[in-house]
Every structure is written in C-alpha cells, then in structure tokens.
Amino acid sequence: MTTPHTPTVFSAPTEYPDNAEFWAAAREGRLLVKHCDDCGKPHWYPRTLCPHCMGTTSWKQASGRGTVYSCSVTRRAGPTPFCMAYVTLEEGVTMMTQIVDCDLDSVRIGQKVELTFTPTDNGPPMPTFRPV
C-alpha cells in the first residue's frame, strides 16, 4: 500500500515567554533543545529545571538529524493521513513529531531523518522530519 504525504497547515502553537526563544529559532529554520547548565544533559520536552539534577537550563541548537524510534500512520483522524513518530535526535533526546515529504508507508524504525519545518496558520513553523 502507498500512502503519499499530503501537505497540511498545522494550527499555530501557543507562544509563552518560556518558549519564545524556541519559536523564534523555528522562524529562522533552527531547532533548539534545552540543556542543563549544571550537568550538561539535554532533555525534551523543554523544562525550566533539569529533570536529571534540578539545575537551571538553557537552549542550544540541535543538529536537526535523527533516527525514527517508533512511528504510526494514522488514516482516520483528520482530513488526510499522517505519520506520527518519535524521533531520537543526535543529541540523545526523543521528541514526538510528524514525518513528511515521503510515502508514509515507507517510514521505518531506525530510518535516518532530517529536520524540516511545516507552516502553521499565522504562527511559527512546526518542526517536522523527512527521510534522508
């Protein structure tokens, strides 16, 4: 079976003071990940305090490269099929996202992916990934 990706526009994310830097970077085509200022470990989802040692955190740019950890093509929810996936970034964190710009049925666990951004309605673009 072949399920082509159909581009869709996502709803705009809600911007808050503590995630403003993340969305500003997304507008520039960059992905930021929180890192602990004390222990140095990255973490996702973004938090003010490190989940490993409770230290303070700051944003650092991510490579934008990763590997599919898990994925599922959804054909019933929404107007078009889409592929939800957990992608483990080179930095070591795993984030939930969508896989785009490919035959959705060809996405496999362990597949290398790269960052791209998908437009939203009147907001910053959403980080998504496509196969390398």
TrEMBL record:
<protein>
    <submittedName>
        <fullName>DNA-binding protein</fullName>
    </submittedName>
</protein>
<dbReference type="GO" id="GO:0003677">
    <property type="term" value="F:DNA binding"/>
</dbReference>
<dbReference type="InterPro" id="IPR002878">
    <property type="entry name" value="ChsH2_C"/>
</dbReference>
<dbReference type="Pfam" id="PF01796">
    <property type="entry name" value="OB_ChsH2_C"/>
</dbReference>
<dbReference type="InterPro" id="IPR012340">
    <property type="entry name" value="NA-bd_OB-fold"/>
</dbReference>
<dbReference type="InterPro" id="IPR052513">
    <property type="entry name" value="Thioester_dehydratase-like"/>
</dbReference>
<dbReference type="InterPro" id="IPR022002">
    <property type="entry name" value="ChsH2_Znr"/>
</dbReference>
<dbReference type="Pfam" id="PF12172">
    <property type="entry name" value="zf-ChsH2"/>
</dbReference>
<feature type="domain" description="ChsH2 rubredoxin-like zinc ribbon">
    <location>
        <begin position="23"/>
        <end position="55"/>
    </location>
</feature>
<feature type="domain" description="ChsH2 C-terminal OB-fold">
    <location>
        <begin position="59"/>
        <end position="117"/>
    </location>
</feature>
<keyword id="KW-0238">DNA-binding</keyword>
